[in-house]
Design goal:
two-stranded antiparallel sheet; 4 strands; 4 helices; elongated; two-stranded antiparallel ribbon; mainly alpha; 2 domains; single chain; 119 residues
């Protein structure tokens, strides 16, 4: 078992034996931390639990941010076609050709699903 620390870096569990009452409460409240090899603290999540997201961002927000940044840098623009993407980015990327095919197929699947739901 891992050695656990509080937010200030004080050891609360030495990594052997049963957790103390305080350590169990801190684990439950996500206030127990492990230390990486570099010394950085990160929230301890027991192996049988799912970690909570560390940020509130969503995939759509990330996509909008990425698109906005790319537009500001002049890498993409509105009505940017897949053929243009492959032409400009293809030389720099090994996966751009696959991206186009994946996007096209995924779009077809989504459209087919939407049509079947609308009937």
């Amino acid at each position: 078992m891992a050695t656990l620390y509080d937010q200030q870096g004080t050891e609360i569990y030495a990594g052997r034996g049963k957790y103390s009452h305080r350590a169990r409460q801190m684990i439950e409240r996500r206030e127990a931390y492990t230390r990486s090899e570099e010394g950085a603290l990160s929230v301890y999540v027991p192996p049988n639990q799912t970690p909570e997201p560390q940020r509130a961002s969503t995939l759509q927000e990330d996509a909008r941010t990425l698109k906005r940044d790319a537009q500001e840098l002049g890498l993409v623009y509105d009505n940017y076609t897949s053929k243009e993407r492959v032409k400009e980015i293809g030389a720099l990327s090994n996966w751009s050709n696959y991206c186009h095919g994946f996007t096209s197929h995924l779009d077809a699947i989504v459209r087919a699903y939407q049509e079947s739901v609308n009937y």
